[in-house]
Design goal:
24% helix, 300 residues, 3-stranded antiparallel β-sheet, 11 strands, NB-ARC domain-containing protein, 7 helices, WHD_DRP, 8-stranded parallel β-sheet, Leucine-rich repeat, LRR (right-handed beta-alpha superhelix), LRR_R13L4/SHOC2-like, WH-like_DNA-bd_sf, plant defense, Arc Repressor Mutant, subunit A, alpha/beta
């Protein structure tokens, strides 16, 4: 099962009758549940979190770690701890279809449908997505939700003003506006959403630690985002319509650890002020636009 266990744990697994059952779907699910039951609590939490993703979703290592960091589910050892959890779940066969970069590092995996079903069943009422939502559901306890064109209508009907405990939200449709009351939100993923405007009220999400607006038609990144002092991850890739970025004030995001953009004109100024920064894949140097390489000397 991939983790070091004491003798008592292995004897418990050996004596479980599920291992001697016939080979069918129910038995496979029982074996998966047995494997889950013998995970340590921190891995159980990480596994259950993955229920927010749809079936056959490409789960990127960095994204999962950053999302869990935003929710405060990782200690301050952060990325290293998150990578350890990810690899442990992979070793326990909860992930498959591994993708690696040129250096052999794992960059993405998927979950088998049966494994995903288990994760969703374990998250109970805390995760709401296409597979487990319907009109009439009580979503007052929902902590994570994935919204696309197929379930947007249902969520619109029941969720406004009723998602006070929501921590992580993925939106792939044009349903995000100022009427949503989400003061407890920690992670907001709008990657690929059909939206053109990010409401200025986003600056009121004081606990927000993760924001991704990549592949959207958003034209203006509101200045109010520079008040998100707990923001750790900010991603705006392939934002071809984006014309206005508060470049001179993003340095106010004192908790920022990861920032990703791919347009020279979107590069914030005074990057050296972001002393917690760990990810910066593009840095433009030049007298007319861009910054000075000396700016980066204070980054850790």
């Amino acid at each position: 099962m991939g983790l070091k266990r004491d003798k008592e744990a292995w004897l418990s697994i050996k004596s479980n009758n599920v291992l001697n059952a016939s080979d069918n779907k129910d038995n496979a699910e029982s074996i998966l549940k047995l494997s889950f039951d013998h995970l340590p609590p921190y891995l159980k939490s990480c596994f259950a979190y993955c229920s927010i993703f749809p079936k056959d979703f490409r789960i990127k290592t960095e994204e999962l770690i950053q999302l869990r960091m935003a929710e405060g589910l990782l200690g301050l050892s952060n990325e290293d701890e998150g990578n350890m959890y990810y690899n442990a779940l992979l070793q326990n066969s909860f992930f498959q279809d591994v993708e690696r970069d040129e250096f052999g590092n794992i960059i993405a995996c998927k979950m088998h449908d049966l494994v995903h079903d288990l994760a969703l069943s374990l998250s109970k009422s805390e995760t709401l997505n296409l597979e487990n939502c319907s009109i009439g559901d009580d979503i007052s306890c929902v902590r994570r939700s994935y919204v696309d064109s197929q379930n947007a209508t249902i969520l619109m009907a029941v969720s406004k003003g009723n998602v006070k405990k929501l921590r992580s939200l993925f939106i792939k449709d044009d349903v995000f506006d100022e009427s949503w009351k989400m003061k407890s939100l920690r992670a907001l993923n709008l990657n690929g959403a059909y939206i053109e405007k990010l409401p200025s009220s986003i600056g009121k999400l004081k606990h927000l630690g993760y924001l991704d607006i990549s592949w959207t038609d958003i034209k203006v990144l509101p200045e109010s985002i520079t008040k998100l002092y707990n923001l750790q991850t900010l991603i705006f890739l392939r934002c071809y319509s984006l014309k206005e970025v508060p470049r001179n004030k993003i340095c106010n995001l004192i908790s920022l650890r990861h920032i990703e953009f791919d347009d020279d004109d979107h590069m914030p100024s005074m990057m050296g002020s972001l002393t917690r920064l760990q990810t910066l894949r593009l840095f433009v140097v030049g007298p007319n636009r861009g910054g000075s390489i000396q700016e980066l000397e204070f980054l850790n």
